[in-house]
Amino acid sequence: MSSTVPASRLVVLPSAAWASTVASELADRLARRPSLRLCLPTGDTPTPFYAELVAGERRGAWSLAGATVVLLDEWLGLPPGDPARCDVRLRGELFDLLASPPAFVPIAVDGADVDEPATALDTAASGLDLAVVGLGMNGHVGFNEPGTRPEDRSRVVRLARSSREAATARYGAGAVPSGGVTIGLATILEAGEVWLLVTGERKAGILRQALEEPEGIDCPASYLRRHPRLTVFADEAAASGLRAS
Ligand code: PGA
What we know:
This protein is α/β, with parallel strands linked by helices.
């Protein structure tokens, strides 16, 4: 049913060209549909892509002003403004740097009802034109950790302690997050198009598993192969373990 990703949907780029190419592709989608609805991830992978989006807007090459961006995932239990929060990071790396930012739909995690933000997120993320996601070292997509099924919708997830502590170690969070909220795999698979962003040699093994080994819950990213319009944007280092390369 889900075979290896055809080479035509695997875009392997020199590291120096990766971010500008992904930005140009997004500009192409925006040119065709200025009111594009998409989700965006946070993490180290997309940071250079966001820098390119900012640079392109400054030189007048494109505008994100008509688009709507839904946040892919968010920690639970971090206070508003915490530097580890995904909304803070996306604002700091992208929206605050754009002269004309898109509409932004963060995940409303600050209320008392922990399930409410997941319901609102699933509504906001339903029928996206484009789902842009990164690849975790354990095969996760958003906070769809190993064990996720492809029919899982947006929801509150209990993260492994190691994942929660990574937020404090990596991003300087003021507290250990209690969990997360993520756009679900099913919701991602309903988007018109899916982009998987992967860079760096350390992702070579998990990218090979995601694209070339049998799909399964131990690697949630493997289910992305079910999408008819998946594009994998990998740099040469990340793609170095692929048979296709
Ligand atoms: P990274 O994270 O881009 O920081 O490697 C990706 C992820 O964990 O989804």
